[in-house]
Amino acid sequence: MNALTIDVEDYFQVSAFAPFIPRAEWHARECRVERNVERILELLDEAGARATFFTLGWIAERYPLLVRRVVDAGHELASHGFGHHRATDQTEDAFFADVDLAKLVLEDLSGVEVRGYRAPSFSINNDNPWAFDCLSRAGYKYSSSIYPVRHDHYGMPEAPRFAHFVRPELLEIPISTVRIGQRNWPAGGGGFFRLLPYAMTRQMLRRINGTDGQAAIFYFHPWEIDAQQPRIPGVDRKTRFRHYLNLRRTEQRLQRLLADFVWGRVDEAFPIDGEPAVEQWPPLAEASAESGVPERSPPGVPAEDRVILQRVAEGYGAIDGGEKYYGQSRARS
Hints:
Elements: E1 2-8, H1 33-47, E2 52-55, H2 57-62, H3 64-72, E3 76-79, H4 92-110, E4 116-117, H5 130-138, E5 142-143, E6 164-167, E7 170-172, E8 177-180, E9 183-186, H6 191-195, H7 198-210, E10 217-220, H8 237-244, H9 247-260, E11 263-264, H10 266-269, H11 303-321, H12 323-329
Helix pairs in contact: 4-5
């Protein structure tokens, strides 16, 4: 079984849109998260799958019935913080206040214990290891806040790829990656699920389940199935490309994903209450200074991995290429 996760936030709350949409204007924006989550619940029901919904406290307060719908359908309710503040932009006290409030709000509205947390934009890294202490103090049992890849907005490539303790009673479950050559490559959803052909995602997840013998953890957002969402004016080319690419194809790809793998809640797929496969790992003091994407496959990469490596590397280049690549990508399934 693999873990399917949904980061419940609306399109205007995306971190990349922060320079273009003041937080004070959130309440005046058209909210589409309710209808999108309802559609996701329908897809999960049709597939007989369960999932974990990392939900913003801001959303839960405004849509309490949606929170109940998620729980009543048998899915796990988890925390995405209250106000979608990146942990790297907060002080330790402010971060604790945010995650503690979110847990209290979600538990009060749902009537169930909230044990999991995911930082907005995977914003826990070497610069703020105190965030794990805050999560433990607030009563969380696991986090899924690290993406062990190199990326211009997030990433902790030196972190373990699989579940590990970061504190004695706090399990970290990183977003799934595949290891090819000397580098981790993203395999756990998000923008790369929309960028790469579906067959690449399927091949990488099968590699994690088969070759690595591990459960995968995959994520997406409700706004990623909403091709009709309002377009934000004045957004730069890279941000526009990353956000709007292949939105009209996401729902169909999700249906294929649900059919090709067995999906469950995080607390079903991972040993939240038991011993993880990896021992406790303290965050390193400094991240690797290496960046960029290799121009060709590193020596020793098996032939069957070269296609994955080439396509994912193309994806990294496409992010910088923006609209130039967009027309080519739209032709892919």
